Amino acid sequence: MNHNLTDYRLLTRQFFRLLPYQILLIVLSTVNDIFSSLFASNYIGTDAMSALGLYSPFDAFIIAISLMFIIGSEILCGKFMGKHEIERTGKVFSVDLLMSIVFSIATILFLVLVTIFDWSRVLTPDAAVRASLNRYIMGSVIGIFPTIIGQQFTAFLSLENKTRITTFASVAFLGVTLILDYLFVAVYRMGEFGLALAPSVGMWVFMLIEIQHYFSKNALFKPSLTGLKLRDAWQIVKTGFSGAVIDEYQAALGFILNILIVMYVGSAGLSAYAATQSMMLVVGTVSFGMIQVGRMLMSVSIGEEDRKTLVDVMRVGLCRCIPIITLIAALMIGFAVPLTRLFYRDPADPVYELTVTGFRILPLYIPLSVFRMQFSCYAQSSGKEVLSNILALLEGIVCMAFFSAILIRPMGMSGVYWSYPLTGVVCAIVIVLYSVIMRGSFPKKLEQLMVIPDDFGAPEDARIDISVQSIDEVIMVSRQVIDFCRNRGIDRRTAFFSGLFLEEMAGNVVEHGFTKDRKPHSVDIRVVHKEDNVILRIKDDCIPFDPEERVEILDPSDPVKGAGIRLVYKMAKDIKYQNMLGLNVLTIHILAG
User: Fold this and answer.
1) Three state DSSP letters for 321-381
2) Does the predicted model carry a pTM greater than 0.70?
3) How confident is the model at residue 452 (pLDDT cuts 50, 70, 90)?
4) What structural domains does the chain harbor?
5) DSSP character for 527?
6) Residue 537: helix, strand or coil by DSSP?
């Protein structure tokens, strides 16, 4: 009998509810890149655009390390939340902040030395471009600390479902940055230093808005130096490395591509590449936001040992996200000329045509990249380090550098552009080959392509997954649960109470939670028979509500009111509630026999 009746509507709504806020996390730096590119090209000149291109590898490296902390912390916290070990998440948060502070200080000191001793001369022999780069670096160092710390705050706010704070902070950042860009660059003519100073000030505003939450009594995560363990720092780095190493590779790739472009194309190629990359990063915010959401949901599913939800998260990412990102890529190709005119307006200028060509080729890579990122995300969360590191190495540096090196001489900048979609094709082939090698056969369904271990989670005959939208469906499911328990050889008493407890708690959600607003809701029910326990998990997207609070406020002098919920809390072996990524999750353990 197939009990897997859920159509993952709840999961899909959760995915796309979290997505906009995750995009905001990434859009800060990418929109800043657009602002910087527009003001640099229109008010300063091509030397400033070249400087932006030369600085981008530094920026990529900083983001890579910060992202490593974020990925490692999110995966660890997601697994702990899935296991209901909330106390462990607070320690991970504190270690993550301490590591981020140390890294920020070290980065600032290094970049100051780069400008003092003119170490940037290894990047370009052009003295004017080098001077422009040094001025830009000095403005950037002011914003490094709030950028790194703000990114960590944003990630943990998502885990707490406090995304509105991030929204407000993001709007403030973008407003401050745009105003200061205009004042510093267009009005006061502060050049490259002003160009970098504007977003630096904006990031201080962003961080100061977010930090207030962590000193409030409602904060789930609070920074503390007590009980910190070096082991947690190592786990964060180890877990996050495979996810962030691609950005470190791309930082190195940036230096390689800059050298190739300078050698074979010239400064016009650098300027065109900087313009196309800034726009690609904006489009990429959607892709990266999808991956951030997927990583959080996968980590929680792995912590819960929920095989079906894990596959459903991947299915949402592939079947819902790739069509969206493909449409965006097609629009980008169709508007290649208008996009180019945002940066360069003279068709006779060599950089103009080079930029148009980039906007017509690079978008082909975006859907392929989303496919790769979905599987990299799963590999990171599930501990498949070999696959994760191979994909990061191939896309991060090996394939890009290889294809660019062999194509740039005969094709010029087009060779660099074509290296992107070609790399995406190679990574897709590697994902399929990995499944074939690990399983010994060609994958015929998504679960096989993911190579999920056979012993992960409860087997199909030991669980049921059902989604309900009405009280009638809850009653029907209650009967199914009783039948499921009896078919598993569980005694009548335990089977009866399993159905009764499910009907009481899920029915309470439908009758009370569904009526609090006019939004569509559903309840995802999961029943697992594991050893001598029946585990009921009830998950809904209604307003946050801990049922234990209702037990406490019920009038003890009225034995009838709330009798069902009192019975559940009296007879269940264990009951745990938490609001996880915006969902109410209630887990009830019932001891059989």
Assistant:
1) HHHHHHHHHHHHHHCHHHHHHCCCCCCCCHHHHHHHHHHHHHHHHHHHHHHHHHHHHHHHH
2) no
3) confident
4) 9-439 (no CATH), 462-591 (3.30.565.10)
5) E
6) strand
